[in-house]
């Protein structure tokens, strides 16, 4: 796409060509109630020099990242990223590579995504992975739509209430113009009660969506949930933490038919909300219903290994009603970072990261529960994240920690309401996540800050 400057004379020529006398005449065709009549309350325009000086002044207000410790959770985590990930992915041939958008995409780009797919399939324990989606939320929504296509059931989708509330809201948006009923099962104890789940699953249910480890950090009984789904002919969709499989069973081993994840923890730093990485994998029999792109491997006429774009059923390429998705791109650079990160860790490194995160999180939880007014909201087992209930209020805890150079949260009150979490608890509770990057000294400093 090109952005070209037009002169006043050129603009006038264009207006004459379409038979109007001014741009305002075009704008007047917009309904009056949609027009912005009053002048915008904006400061005067700055020169380039003034703008640079202003931005430099703003940057001096930033706290040094090296002086702070991040215990924030909720779907984005401060995991350690080996420096070689930045070194490799900042190379021009990688950094500027876009996406397998056209059939003539370069062999290097296609191979990188083929390797990504192979690693993600192994990571999830399922047969096929696509060449990435936008983020974890869109991945969950796309997986549900995929389950509806696979089962042919439009009647009902059941979501376990401990799923990331932002994922649930994304799914609600995707389903707003469909006749599908979305049922969210409350999880007042941090995990779903199988009897409550069984009460709402029927023969018109397309799938059950469960997050494990869930949004509260707790571990769900995914295998039992999968058996329940399959008894009714529904599919099991699991949202998982990619690093958790260093300790926990993979989605494929738990009975998941489709698995999705937010791939930010695989080598992508925290950066103001994105871009992140959507992961989607499934069993072989559902591959024709998969959204996004699939890169394949073959040989050329000389018998040499090569790669090609062998599946991308989107609305620009085939009949609109036959498309699996309107996904137009993938998070190519983030998928590449995940590929480099996973190749560096390997199975043993993945296990070590998971073990360190789990052990440090449990040490932090034990120490914090010794602080007066602090307790865990849910008593069940957890992986690297837990909900802390602070008697003086979540916002007070966040401010106390911030004063000590520590970031915790978010408070549950900042997030969309969740089934089974009362308004009173939303004001008192916040998330605390502990990764392998955190030290014992930082954990002890957090405990002191909240004491």
Q: Name the CATH superfamily assignment of the largest domain.
A: Type I PLP-dependent aspartate aminotransferase-like (Major domain)
CATH topology heading of the largest domain? Aspartate Aminotransferase, domain 2
Shape: globular
The appropriate CATH architecture of the largest domain is 3-Layer(aba) Sandwich
Give me the oligomer status.
Answer: single chain
Average pLDDT taken over every residue: 91
What is the fold's blueprint, element by element?
Blueprint: H1 8-18, H2 23-27, H3 48-59, E1 69-72, H4 83-89, H5 92-95, H6 107-124, E2 128-129, H7 136-151, E3 156-160, H8 165-174, E4 181-185, H9 194-198, E5 205-211, H10 222-231, E6 235-239, E7 258-262, E8 278-282, E9 294-299, E10 305-311, H11 332-368, E11 374-376, E12 385-390, H12 394-403, E13 406-409, H13 423-428, E14 429-433, H14 440-450
Task: Name a few traits of the molecule.
globular, 451 residues, 36% helix, 2 domains, Aspartate Aminotransferase, domain 1, Aspartate Aminotransferase, domain 2, alpha/beta
Short description:
With 451 residues, this protein is α/β, with parallel strands linked by helices. It has helices at 8-18, 23-27, 48-59, 83-89, 92-95, 107-124, 136-151, 165-174, 194-198, 222-231, 332-368, 394-403, 423-428, 440-450, and strands at residues 69-72, 128-129, 156-160, 181-185, 205-211, 235-239, 258-262, 278-282, 294-299, 305-311, 374-376, 385-390, 406-409, 429-433. The protein has 2 domains: 67-81 and 347-450, Alpha-Beta Complex (Aspartate Aminotransferase, domain 1); 83-341, 3-Layer(aba) Sandwich (Aspartate Aminotransferase, domain 2), CATH 3.40.640.10.
